[in-house]
Design brief:
With 216 residues, the chain is mainly β. The protein folds into two domains: 125 residues; 67 residues, SH3 Domains (SH3 type barrels, Roll). 5% of the residues lie in helices and 45% in strands. The protein has an eight-stranded antiparallel sheet with strand order 12-11-10-9-16-15-14-13, with helices on one face. The radius of gyration is 18 Å and the shape is elongated. The two termini are 32 Å apart. The N terminus is likely disordered. Keywords: Signal. InterPro entries: SH3-like_bac-type (IPR003646). This is Bacterial SH3 domain protein.
Amino acid sequence: MIRLFALFLMLVPLAAPAQGLPPLLDVGGNGLPALFDVAGVAADDTLNVRSGPGTDSPVIGELAPDRQGVEIVSTDASGNWGLMNLEERAGWVSLAYMARQAGDWFASASTVAGCFGTEPFWGLTVSPGSWSFDIFGEPRFVAEPSPFTGPGAAGFDRAASAELSGDDGFAALVISPGICSDGMSDQLYGLEARLITTLSGMGTQLWSGCCTVTSR
């Protein structure tokens, strides 16, 4: 039954993106979203984060020359700039000074750091060997996920799925690339999530939100 839920989630399109969100671009084929490290910046210098993809855009922050694990969720049309989150907003950084880490977001169930959504607030926290699902911060069940079914399986080339089953219920999760907003800040994420849960006392429910490959 749970596999049918996952198939259903893959077939049902997500709601239209919120007005004003940019499209997810991956010029250069980096397999975004992905983690990058700052590279080629002098030890006594910093890498500027700008409000837009270009040196004429205002600087809104900086990255240390040894900063690692920066999640790049999209590129601009040229492929020279990457979209990232800095504090409570999104900004752009020159990819000429960023080196991609190995690994793909769909490689395994532990690659995604977590998923979350609002209305109501829910979260799926990933730790080695288990995922924890909570509603309004209250844990509902902890379970070991099934192996990720990655892009290309069953003809779905832009989605990955995982299944979870615990004492208090079970869930089917589908993750696909796409610019996603948490609705609470100006941060943007590169993975959209659809989740079906069947929980004790709550029946079957459909949730939607965002996922990230770095800790929030």
